[in-house]
Amino acid sequence: MTLLEVSDVESGYGDVLVLHGVDLTVTEGEMVSIIGPNGAGKSTLLKTVAGLLSTRSGEIRFGGEDIADVPAEEIVYHGICYVPQTTNVFGNLTVVENLKMGAWALEDADFEDRVERVYERFPVLEDRPDQRAETMSGGQQQMLAMGAALMLDPDLLILDEPSAGLAPQLIDDVFERIADINDSGTAVLMVEQNARRALREADRGVVLEMGENRFEGTGEELLESEEIAELYLGS
Ligand SMILES: Nc1ncnc2c1ncn2[C@@H]1O[C@H](COP(=O)(O)OP(=O)(O)OP(=O)(O)O)[C@@H](O)[C@H]1O
Ligand SMILES: [Mg+2]
């Protein structure tokens, strides 16, 4: 079943339009990777879905509901959690405090229970509950950002460049955790510079360029395409 449906969306900043009628769907439990050159509008698309930017035109539906005008602070009630490209943890808060912040929208929260589940997924967090986030490595901070997003048990997890700036070993770790999260039923929509890896992991890939859809297909189809390889995969 279709979970997220973005249809013909235009959005941007001030007077500048960045997305010129973009379409995107994510079905339940699916993993979709968005790739494309710098400045293509990938982050803008994620921010628009997450309610940080409003649409100029077009529709965004989630679980059949119109969410185009739902602001970022309410989007979580609809089952969407968004982890931005940078500054995605509270540096001066500890691990456990960050997880509490992630759980802010929980009603009659079983906080302990959720924390246990996040710790199972990210043992690196359980080892250091009282460490301040800003003193953790990039990979650990990325795990924390994802852990905090998972506190609310979203139907869709949106990740903007989860592997950016990480050492190769940590990149593997982060992608493995994302695959686990997806295997447990959470749909994942991610943007990645690491395009080859992102397409290998994903059920479907979407190529954006200059604020427009360029190509779309299964991860395999896009990886096998010579045109995609030449234009977007650097070979
Ligand atoms: N806050 C902003 N105010 C004005 N223009 C912006 C803002 N953020 C992004 N833009 C512009 O919107 C366009 C798309 O940017 P966006 O961040 O969506 O690209 P991207 O595909 O995520 O690129 P990258 O791969 O570098 O992260 C760019 O031309 C950028 O300069
Ligand atoms: Mg970006």
Salient structural properties:
binds adenosine-5'-triphosphate; 235 residues; alpha/beta; 6-stranded mixed sheet; globular; binds magnesium ion; 10 helices; single chain
What would you note in describing this structure?
The structure is a single chain. Helices cover 36% and strands 27% of the residues. The chain has 10 helices and 10 strands. The strands form 2 sheets. The chain has a 6-stranded mixed sheet with strand order 6-7-8-3-9-10, sandwiched between helices. Strands 2-1-4-5 form a 4-stranded antiparallel sheet, covered by helices on one side. α3 (95-102) packs parallel to α6. 43% of the residues are buried.
Summarize it.
The protein is α/β, with parallel strands linked by helices. The chain is about 35% helix and about 25% strand.
Using the alpha-carbon principal axes, give the shape. globular
Number of strands: 10
**Rounded average pLDDT:** 93
Low-confidence stretches: none
* Class from helix and strand fractions: alpha/beta
The largest pleated sheet is described as: 6 strands, mixed
How is the largest sheet built, in terms of strand order?
Answer: 6-7-8-3-9-10
First-to-last CA distance = 35 Å
Radius of gyration (Å): 17 Å
Number of helix segments? 10
Order of helices and strands: EEEHEEHEHHHHEHEHEEHH
Distinct ligands, ions and cofactors found in the model: adenosine-5'-triphosphate, magnesium ion
